[in-house]
User: Fold this.
Amino acid sequence: MGKFHLTIVLAFAILVMAGCAPRKTIAPPEIKHKIERNLNSVSVPPHARGTIEYSGFRDFKSGFYLTRLGDTVDLMLPGPLGFPIAHVKVTRDTVITVGGIEIKELGFKSLLGSIDLERPLRTFKIENVYYSGRHAIAEGQILTGKGVITATPAGRLERIKIEFASGVLTLGNFSPWGENRSYPAEIGWRGDKARLRIVLRAE
Assistant:
């Protein structure tokens, strides 16, 4: 191989390496500032960048895409290869704006941690959080008594009295993002010492 061919090969290698160099953001510079403080909500490889290709559930009222636990978001790399270079696994309920770039953490677990269980509802315990379709669901166990649940997450959840009888109670409006949009929520239960399920509906 002559020097000319070697030079071409080296130049091509440098271009490829430059294209694969680690990046600190997953977005173009004009929207970088929107996501710098939110990158911890998903596991993003440092070199991932480009546009987000996402197939999931869209809340048309608010313009948000709601992912589910275990969903995968593909980050596309524009360039000579042009195939996905990163598959982002959603670690919590993650919100992606219609623009496809800004990523926010819903912080549903943080919401549950902020619930203040007043007497005599001292033995209620949230045991599991999971996601089903467009719904974020928390399950727990009611052991005794009746009482009031108060929550002060980023949004607002009104004080709710819980009576241990079969049925579903509508909590009213709940805003997980602390903004002017709100969602109906429900608490469902059956009998004393039964399961309690909180459903946040993004509809």
In short: The chain has two domains: 22-106, 109-201.
